[in-house]
């Protein structure tokens, strides 16, 4: 699951395209299938979103939650692909984007009535 935060006046107009860019990177780097898009957008009021100095109002935070298993080079490739594609397709400067990957053990995920370590029918690889 991916959660995206930003100031609502900047985030709302680009949500659809931003979702497309994020999912495209997830597909190309991680091999995620087309139907595995789980994005949550949290547009915030300006007074509810504090961010570091040197950033513009376009500052966007992307939290990627995934089952543990992807190696560090794969995760770094995903982050770099996101920076590149967000800048080229949405003109979001890398200084205005923060990306974090949060990993949880498969047994800590629950979906379709089972835990992630019980799922044997995933259409994508976790260990890449």
Automatic annotation (TrEMBL):
Name listed for the protein in its UniProt record: Tautomerase enzyme
InterPro entries referenced in this protein's UniProt entry, alphabetically: Tauto_MSAD, Tautomerase/MIF_sf
Pfam (any one): Tautomerase_2
Organism: Marinomonas gallaica
